[in-house]
Each structure stands twice: as structure tokens, then as C-alpha cells.
Write a structure and sequence with these properties.
The protein is mainly alpha-helical. It has two domains: 43 residues; 29 residues, no CATH class. Helix content is 47%, strand content 8%. Strands 1-2 form a two-stranded antiparallel sheet. The termini are far apart.
């Protein structure tokens, strides 16, 4: 039953569902391809940056200011 792949001694159920990894990979691939297509057309889409990257917090502040009226929970 299920699609868990990892069995840990002493644990009654396997963990690490492969569908989670496959779905995350598929979603990220879709985002990457979409951004690549937009850039080919001369459009640089806004993206959320890691707060750990240099300038990430500043870039995200601009993102929030731009979209806050549409997505209030930002």
C-alpha cells in the first residue's frame, strides 16, 4: 500500500513517498520551462528569492510591495 520507499528498522511503516518527490520535480520543471519561455520572449517574471541569498530580502520586499494588493497574505 502506498508509495513509500524507505524502511527504517524499528519503524512500523515505510516513509519517503516517491510521489512527493515526483510531484515536486514535475512542478519545478514546469516553473523552469515557463520562466525560460518567458525570458525567450523578453519577459523577466518576478520570482521569490531566497532570504539567504545576497539581496534576497530586498528583492522580496519589492515583490511584496508589487503584489500585496492582489495577494493580501503576503
Amino acid at each position: 500500500m502506498g508509495d513509500a520507499l524507505v524502511s527504517i528498522p524499528g519503524m512500523g511503516e515505510p516513509i519517503g513517498a516517491v510521489s512527493t518527490f515526483a510531484n515536486a520535480f514535475a512542478l519545478n520543471t514546469l516553473v523552469i520551462r515557463t520562466v525560460a519561455k518567458l525570458v525567450e520572449r523578453g519577459i523577466e517574471p518576478p520570482i521569490w528569492r531566497s532570504g539567504n541569498a545576497p539581496g534576497g530580502d530586498e528583492a522580496n520586499s519589492r515583490f511584496i510591495a508589487r503584489f500585496n494588493d492582489r495577494v493580501r497574505k503576503l
